[in-house]
Structure formats: C-alpha cells, structure tokens
Fold this protein.
Amino acid sequence: MIRMPKTPEAYVRALGVHVRYGWVPDGLWGTYDADLHVITLKRGLAPTQLLCTLMHELGHAAYRHEGTTPRSEREANHWAAVRLISKQDFVDAILVDNNAVAMAHRLGVLPDVVEHYIDALSDSERQAIEELVRASAAA
C-alpha cells in the first residue's frame, strides 16, 4: 500500500489551501482556483479517484498555477505522482505486475498516476529503479 511521508490533509495544511466539494465543469473531477487558493472536488468520487484528484489539485496549489496549460498539468501530475508512490512501493509493484493498470491497483492509485510517476523519473532515478528491480529479482 501507499507509504506517503505526509497525508493529503497535511499537504492541505502545509499549503494553506481550502478544499471544498461542489460543482466542477463537466468531465473534470476537481479544479484549483489560484485567486481564491481553493480546490473544488466533485461529489461522489470513489476513494481512489478522490485521493488522486486531490493530490493533483494540490500540485496546482503548490505551484500556484493560474489557468491550465500542458506544462501546468504535467507539473501537477508529477507533483502528485511522486507523493503518492514511493520508490520502494514502485519497485515492489513492478516486480509483481509489469503493467500500469495492475500496478495502480496494487499501489492504490489510478493507472495514469503510475504513468506520470514513470514520466517524472530522471534518468538516474530510472537507472536506480532498474538496479533495485534486478537486485530484487535475483534475490
């Protein structure tokens, strides 16, 4: 399961952002308003959807993004992914399930979070993970 150094609530407090439930535009699960420093989450999300959406929107809040651009979405996705998935949990999951959907289930996140985690890795982090996987597989 996920071993986050902080809970989503701790990030909310640390960032000083207000979180509420309410209307969001069709097709979205959450939004961040930089002017108000408020995250709005859609009602009725499943627990994993809620967690991943909240962490993504907290990424926007951490960067104080104004509006949506491909860059701001990538930054928020990466921010969330590296806080939702630890390196060791990722290695443990990839040793058992080498596809994003199965790994996501094992990690308690959505499949796109696994993909964003992989995308966020630096070359040296990728190499370190590959070494951990090789070492774990050999043990």
About this structure: The two ends are 22 Å apart (CA to CA).
